[in-house]
Amino acid sequence: MQTRLARLYQKGDLRIETDTVPAPGPGEVLLKMAAAGICGSDLHYYQDGGFGPVRVREPIIPGHEASGTVSQAGEGVDLKDGVLVAVNPSQPCGHCEYCEKGMPIHCLKMRFMGSAMRLPHEQGMFREWLVVPAKQCFEVGAATTAAEAACSEPLSVCLHAASRAGEISGKRVLITGAGPIGALMVAAAAYHGAAEIVVTDLADAALERAKAMGASRAINVSRDAAALAEFETGKGYFDLVFECSAAAPAIRSAIAAIRPRGTIVQVGVTGEIPIPLNAIVGKELHIHGTQRFHEEFATAVALISSRKIDVRPIISHSLPLEDANAAFALAGDRTAACKVQLTF
Q1: Could you tell me which residue ranges the Enoyl reductase (ER) domain spans (predicted)?
Q2: Which residues of 239-257 are buried (b: 16+ CB within 10 A; e: fewer)?
C-alpha cells in the first residue's frame, strides 16, 4: 500500500512524495489521516531549519497534531473501523529513570512524532496513511470534527502549562503572545476559573481570536505599548503570567506587570535572551518551565469532544496535502492565519 506524504529535506525544501505503508501489527492501527495542524516547531523547521539546538539534519516528515479514522485494526485492538481518533504523538519508553519516577515527559528515550531533536529523527504525521500503536489513539465525540480533534495536542500543551501554574481560579492572568498556543492558553485559563485574562500581542487578528477564546481584554502592544503601564504600579497587578511569545520585550513587560511572589509559566521557546534578574529576585517571583504533556492528552480530547473548550475559533485555514508549501507560507503570516491545517 502506498501513501502520499510531505517530507522536509532542509530549510524551505518540502516535497510531496510517495512511500510504502506497512500493515498494522499486534496492538497497532492503520489510520486514514484526516487533519493535521502546522505547529510553531514545524514552522521553524520549514523557515529556519530548526530552532535553538534542534536542527533538521536528515529528511523528516513533520507533523505532531493530527486526527485520523481507523481503517484497519491489528490483533488485540478494540478500536472499530470508521472511528475518528486524535493521535497522541508522545511515546515515552516507560522504564527509564524519569518514567519510573512518574515524569514521562522527561523520558530519556522519548520518541515524539515529527521531532528533529534526536537522530534518527522521529517521523511525523503529514501523510495520508499512518500506522501507530493503538494506545496513542483516543476516540473523540460523535459530533467532533477532524479539525477539532487535531487540536487535542496543542490544547494538551496548554493544559499541562496550567498544571504548572498552581491555583488559577480567581486569579488575574496575563498571557503574552496570542498565537495558537496563546489563544488556547486563554481557553485553558478561563476553563480553570481565572477572574481576569489580559492578552498582549502585535497583531490585531490574533488578539481578536484571543477574545473569542475568552480573554477579558486584548492589548496590541505594537500600537499601544503604554497600555501595560497601568499594570506596573504598586509593584505589579497580575497574579499569574503565561508567557507564550518567547520575545524578550514581552518577558520584561511580564516581569514588570506581575505582583511580588507571582508566578510566571514560560510556555514559549527561544534561544538565550537577557532577563532582569534583579526584578525577579526583588519581587521573589516563581518561574516555571513547561514542556509538552502526558495525561493531559486524554483530558484535552474529552474537553474538545464536549466543547467545554471550543477550539473552533483558532482554526483559520485548511489546505490539501498537495498544497503543503502554500500552507506553510500561510502559517507564517500572523496577520492572516492562526491554526493552519493540512487535510488528507
Answers
A1: 12-342
A2: bbbbbbbbbeebbebbbbb
